[in-house]
Amino acid sequence: MTNQIIQAILLGGYYALLACGLSFMFSIMKIINLAHGSLLVLSAYMFWLLADNYGISPFYGIFIIVPIMMLVGWGLQVFLLQKSAKAGELLPILTTFGLAIVIENLLFQQFGADTRSLAPYIGDLSWASWEIFEDIYVGKTSVYILIAAIIILGGLHLFMKKTALGRQIRATAHDPETAGLVGVNARKASVIAVALAMGTVAVSGLALGIRGVFNAYSGGPQLLFAFEATIIGGPASLWGTLIGGIILALAQTIGANIHPQGFLIGGHAIFFAVLFIRIFLSKGGMSQRIKSVLGISK
Amino acid sequence: MTSLKIQNLDVQHGQLKAVRNLSLTVQKGEVVALIGANGAGKTTLLGSIAGVLRTTSGSILLNGQDITDLPSHKRVQAGLALVPEGRKLFTEMTIEENLRLGSTSARPGYWTVDSVLEAFPNLIKRRHSKTGLLSGGEQQATAIGRALMSNPEILILDEVSLGLSPLVVNQVYDSLKRLLETDTTIILVEQDLTRAMKVASRAVCMLEGEIILNKQMSEVSREEITDAYFGLHKVKDR
């Protein structure tokens, strides 16, 4: 029992790390990035390419892939989101949906149906573990992933709260026109925000690759787990995402205990339970309730 | 010395011409009251000066520099600040955060968080409260303070008394007194004519997107302004 709870918390850290970029774009920019999963898989492939072709360890690869993904974020904002946002709130979401399909199929065309993993390139770390109590072992990678999630979410939280640039990004997300009036370069602030989100997506891709296997179409489940963690934790809060990830993992573990196939169902059940309770507790008409639960009301 | 020069300005909302062929020159240190009924084009004019609205034709010069095509944050850098109608605060941030945002493109000058709080002492004890929870008067003071943080040469105030009780309006204008005495150029929209005539040095009346009266306060009568407000001068001239 204790073992299962500890493993579930570590798994929750993994979900939280998957969700960082999604949660950030959701809470700050009010955009649900449906290409989150595919972009994450894209960066996992980039880590794999570096390791397989040039023998660069994924841990050094971070210094190459994070900047590349930040550039991808810049392009995403300037060429897609900024333009589609002019046509209303819904269009950026549809745009990211289309982008996800494009990325998935390009990856499939390039890399085929073989599943890959980064585990062969990280030495004994992929199976190494610590014994914390008698007969209870935790995987080293799982612990590192949990720590990474705490550092990234905490860092983003502090950055948004304490720095001038963070304030400018929040102001732009709240009301770009007024942000301009007080002297904020709204375009620049949005570009920086998306670039930051994509930088964290690169780290999520690394976590995906060293923890398991991926192929071109692995993005969907990652997006689903990330989205569930974000919503359970409350879309307005970055710290909430960490809690949300842990709750999701605990529910999945309980589900698996009840029935061998209950793992995913347990997660979905808690997601819907939280969603419906929040809708029930919030005020106003139905569309207003849904908006406030999703954190997109202003 | 000319501070702001607007030449043959046209601004359209779709099919509607909200500002038509408007020209206006404002001297440094002047306090100009922009007077007109709802729909006369006042807010549209101010919005296009601040860079929120695109102009159809014409030009806007600030100290001789053409700012017609600059985005709004660059205009703040050049010395223009607008306090928008309805205050438009960032309601999830505190007073201090709102003020600090105002200094994003600031020029060097007198106004800092401390000097703003000194000018609006009612904000001091609420410094770390979220602005969404403040009273109307406190919100308006924060909005004005936020604009001042950029140390503007021209401060534009759009309907500062909107939605405030007469008592609170008095407080807001009291705290503006000090500002009115400095050489900051001010353009303000005020529906209360008595107050506008007391505060401003020049009256500019707008009707249907055009300026129909532009005189020093000392040379204009209350009746002249009311006639212009309702467009009665056309009837009386006949």
Question: What order do the helices and strands come in, and which of them pair?
Answer:
The complex is a heterodimer of chains A (298) and B (238).
Chain A: H1 2-29, H2 36-54, H3 58-85, H4 91-111, E1 116-117, E2 129-133, E3 136-139, H5 140-162, H6 164-174, H7 176-181, H8 186-211, E4 213-214, H9 219-233, H10 238-258, H11 262-281, H12 286-293
Helix pairs in contact in A: 1-5, 1-8, 1-9, 1-10, 2-3, 2-4, 2-8, 2-9, 3-4, 3-8, 5-6, 5-8, 5-10, 6-8, 9-10, 9-11, 10-11, 11-12
Chain B: E1 2-13, E2 16-27, E3 31-35, H1 42-50, E4 57-62, E5 65-66, H2 72-78, E6 80-83, H3 95-102, H4 113-119, H5 136-148, E7 154-158, H6 166-181, E8 185-189, H7 193-199, E9 202-207, E10 210-216, H8 222-230, H9 232-237
What would your notes on this structure say?
The complex is a heterodimer of chains A (298) and B (238). Chain A has 298 residues and is mainly alpha-helical. Chain A has one domain (2-293): Orthogonal Bundle (ABC transporter involved in vitamin B12 uptake, BtuC). Chain A has twelve helices and four strands. Chain A has helices spanning 2-29, 36-54, 58-85, 91-111, 140-162, 164-174, 176-181, 186-211, 219-233, 238-258, 262-281, 286-293, and strands at 116-117, 129-133, 136-139, 213-214. In chain A, strands 1-4 form a two-stranded antiparallel sheet. A two-stranded antiparallel sheet of chain A has the order 2-3. In chain A, β2 and β3 form a beta hairpin. In chain A, α3 (58-85) crosses α8. The longest helix of chain A has 28 residues, at 2-29. Chain A is globular. The mean pLDDT of chain A is 91. Helix content of chain B is 34%, strand content 27%. Chain B is built from nine helices and ten strands. Chain B has helices spanning 42-50, 72-78, 95-102, 113-119, 136-148, 166-181, 193-199, 222-230, 232-237, and strands at residues 2-13, 16-27, 31-35, 57-62, 65-66, 80-83, 154-158, 185-189, 202-207, 210-216. Chain B is an alpha/beta fold and 238 residues long. The radius of gyration of chain B is 18 Å and the shape is globular. Chain B has a single domain, classed as P-loop containing nucleotide triphosphate hydrolases (Rossmann fold). The longest helix of chain B is centred in the C-terminal third of the chain and has 16 residues, at 166-181. In chain B, α3 (95-102) runs parallel beside α5 and α5 packs parallel to α6. Chain A binds chain B through residues 164, 167-168, 170-171, 174-175, 177-186, and chain B through 50-52, 71-73, 76-77, 81-82, 84, 88, 90-93, 97, 100-106, 146-147, 149-150.
